[in-house]
Amino acid sequence: MNAEFIIQELLSVANPEKANFLRSFFKTGKGQYAEGDVMLGIVVPLTRDVVKKCPELPFSEIQLLLDSEYHEVRLAGLLLLVKQFKKAKGEEEKKKIFDFYLRNARKANNWDLVDVTCRDVIGLYLLDKTDRSALYRLVESDNLWEQRIAIVSTWTFIKNYQFDDTLAISIKLLNHKHDLIHKAVGWMLREVGKKDREVLVNFLNTYHAQLPRTSLRYAIEHFAPEERAYYLYHFDA
């Protein structure tokens, strides 16, 4: 089995009606963040089912998937990297998958491609590392998707009660202009709050007035109404 097998399998379950909806949902129109992306209209569980049929593809075949014009084919390539990373037996093998993902980070050119894969490759690889400079190179990138990878990958750290990188990267993204970054920052801050409310409150007490409003609203989503009102009032004041 090879990349062509996966592509043909995905083409065989394409849904043109759903593809029309997804083109709008994922903002593929002219001037939008995913301009020109081609949708097949396949739900993620179906894509995962196809990936299960040939999990051992070499990088050369996965590269063909990542180079595809089809959104769901690129997703399949990224999901293969996730599966291979989780099965990797040694540090050298994990590092190769990590590096390959980073080289192709810009191929994860929509928020779903980023969100369902980066934390299980980039985040998981860096979890036990003291050198996480790769994340800071990504956040300084001029590419929206690499920047989103930087913040969303910290989800894995948060789940393991490591918050410093999430907070540091959130600060670096305070002045970002794009709503997709505002949402990702707010989402990660909310996850921090689920693990340690005090860490989030301390961060908000310092930075709430500088956070984009979308980030703030996401971050305080689980606060009591009066607490949300307090931060939103001081944001608007």
Question: Could you explain the architecture of this structure?
Answer:
The protein has 237 residues and is mostly helical. It contains 16 helices and no strands. Helix 10 (144-152) runs parallel beside helix 13 (179-195) and helix 12 runs antiparallel to helix 13 (179-195). The longest helix is centred in the middle third of the chain and has 17 residues, at 71-87. The mean pLDDT is 94.
Pick out its properties:
237 residues, mainly alpha, 2 domains
- Approximately how much helix is present in the residues? 55-70%
Q: How many angstroms does the end-to-end distance come to?
A: 60 Å
Structural category is: mainly alpha
Number of helices: 16
Which descriptor suits the 3D outline?
globular
How many discrete domains? 2
- Give a quick account of the main beta sheet: strands, pairing sense, barrel closure: none
Beta-strand segment tally:
0
**Computed CA radius of gyration, to the nearest angstrom:** 19 Å
Poorly predicted residue ranges:
none
Average of per-residue pLDDT values: 94
- Assess the beta-strand content as a share of residues: under 5%
Order of helices and strands: HHHHHHHHHHHHHHHH
Could you provide a short overview of the structure?
With about 240 residues, this protein is an all-alpha fold. Helix content is about 65%, strand content about 0%. It has helices at about 5-10, 15-25, 45-50, 60-65, 70-85, 90-105, 110-115, 120-125, 135-140, 145-150, 155-160, 165-170, 180-195, 195-205, 215-220, 225-235.
